[in-house]
Write a structure and sequence with these properties.
The chain has 421 residues and is an all-alpha fold. The chain has 18 helices and no strands. It starts with a helix and ends with a helix.
Length: 421
């Protein structure tokens, strides 16, 4: 157990949802007779669910502050129709239409953030009103019409990294991306070890570092192969590239910036955060504005994949984003959650949807199962926390705890018994 912790570089509990995701993938790989882990299906999962994963990033920051946003779907619908109409009727260049849509999303986010931060209307009420208001605005502007978007926006929502170099049956752009990712992981791990040594800490053994790097390199190498070995003209999706960039940026914001720490402080204890100098109104305002900005990004990706706007745009998106965040480990009361956790939660739901489709589960049972997964995950976490027991993450990993026959069990004894012994 200790060796596994040294290799993974942290508390095993934080990997519980990731383990559950791997087990779910393997389960559907078996029951679908090998269809789950194919290049085409992997590309479809990323292209088809990237917009939900991006929404989950924004929803995470809102939920950490202890609020909720019910309007991203309606905001996305308004942004999509504004982009399409600005290009079709106002003859904007495609890039100007995209920029206009992002500005519309930011403006809506500022509107909703102002009601929460400066007027004091709770986020639930503010965004419930926004959900109704902006859905009506969408219907007024677009008349529920289907408006096509240009090829450049279609490429954003449904394109792949380009082909170049000799045709070897493997996409060279994906290969290059994979090599860069592996090099970045190795560099960051070595730099982190160097910082530990310089600060006087005790780094993990060299063998553990090497094993961790090998595991990461193998995982990234497999993903590179999976996305790069599909039919000619396909590779790692453009939506996936946008998602990766946003995950890295927002993970940095959450962990390394003042505003990120302020978000966690406000969610943990608003009064205490205010006493320490955190501008709580600013935090609420930026969280809501950021949510609508990311809803605009998701909308542009979605209409690109769909090739046009439509009356179903944005319906139910906020529910998928909320589910991803909670399944990824965010606390209902706020103050807890990570960007990577929300990403894993969103991927869990995406794989679940894809797997049920592959094995022929109907839409009725698919909805039932998704709802039960969310309910059980959150209820189990809440129950265990009130009982002082491990979270669902720890429960998933409990079966991995194997002790050697000659290993001491002091860790399982109460502190007093250990002292007495």
């Amino acid at each position: 157990m200790k060796a596994i912790q040294q290799v993974l570089g942290g508390n095993l509990r934080q990997y519980g949802m990731f383990v559950a995701l791997i087990l779910l993938i393997l389960f559907f790989q078996v029951v679908s007779h090998g269809v789950m882990l194919t290049p085409a299906n992997a590309q479809n999962i990323i292209n088809g669910y990237s917009y939900v994963l991006i929404l989950a990033i924004g929803m995470l920051f809102v939920i950490i502050t202890g609020q909720i946003d019910l309007a991203p779907g309606s905001v996305a619908a308004v942004v999509g129709i504004c982009v399409a109409l600005s290009i079709l009727n106002w003859h904007f260049p495609w890039w100007a239409g995209v920029l206009f849509g992002l500005l519309v999303g930011i403006a809506i986010g500022c509107w909703q953030g102002s009601w929460l931060a400066f007027v004091g209307v709770p986020g639930f009420i503010t965004t419930l009103a926004g959900q109704i208001l902006f859905r009506g605005l969408y219907l007024h502007i677009g008349k529920a019409a289907s408006i096509p978007v240009p090829e450049q926006i279609r490429y954003i929502g449904n394109g792949f990294l380009p082909e170049w170099g000799p045709r070897t049956g493997f996409n060279n752009s994906t290969l290059l991306l994979g090599l860069v990712a592996i090099a970045a992981v190795v560099t960051l791990e070595l730099r982190r070890r160097g910082r530990t040594v310089r600060s006087g800490g005790t780094p993990a053994p060299v063998w553990a570092l090497v094993a961790r790097l090998v595991v990461m390199a193998v995982a990234l190498g497999y993903l590179t192969y999976l996305f790069g070995s599909g039919r000619y003209g396909t590779s790692f999706p453009v939506t996936g590239c946008i998602l990766v960039v946003l995950v890295l940026v927002y993970n940095f914001i959450a962990r390394r910036t003042t505003i990120g720490r302020g978000v966690y402080a406000v969610g943990g204890n608003r009064a205490a955060a205010a006493l320490t100098g955190v501008n709580t109104k600013k935090v609420y305002f930026l969280a809501m504005a950021n949510m609508s900005f990311l809803a605009a990004v998701a909308s542009i990706m979605f209409i690109g994949r769909s090739t046009s706007t439509g009356p179903g745009d944005g319906i139910g998106w906020e529910l998928d984003a909320i589910a991803a965040v909670f399944i990824g480990g965010a606390a209902v009361s706020g103050g807890v959650g990570t960007v990577f956790g929300s990403l894993i939660g969103g991927l869990f739901m995406a794989v679940l949807n894809s797997g049920m489709y592959l094995v022929g589960v109907g839409s009725d049972w698919s909805q039932i199962i998704r709802g039960l997964v969310l309910l059980v995950a959150v209820a189990f976490d809440l129950y265990n926390k009130t009982q002082g027991r491990p979270s669902i993450t720890a429960a998933i990993l409990r079966g991995l705890r194997i002790k050697g026959r000659g290993e001491t069990k002091e860790a399982e004894l109460p502190r007093a018994e250990v002292t007495q012994s």
